[in-house]
Design goal:
Largest sheet: 3 strands, mixed
Number of helices: 4
Order of helices and strands: EEHHEHH
Structural class: mainly alpha
Oligomer: single chain
Helix content: 55-70%
Number of strands: 3
Number of domains: 1
Radius of gyration: 13 Å
Strand order of the largest sheet: 2-1-3
Shape: globular
Amino acid sequence: MTKFVIKTDGTKEIFDAGKVERAIRAAAHAVDFSEERIQELIKNVLIKVFELIQDNEEVAAADIKKVVLSELDILEPSVSASWRDYDATKVRD
């Protein structure tokens, strides 16, 4: 079953776990984590994301982000802090 993500602007796109992976990877690299640890984080976080989306055809991007950051807060607070730092400084369209 295809899952859709509803973005903040209201548009929909097909869920792409690769986007979550790339975001975690970027945040983890910013705080200099090993590839092995990054893979472990990605695996554990994606488990939680899949739990969120499994029973829903559509899910808000904000809900996915909340789950990702909550799990990173538990597993590696420095990675979630890195993500939030980047998010606070990026230019909005």
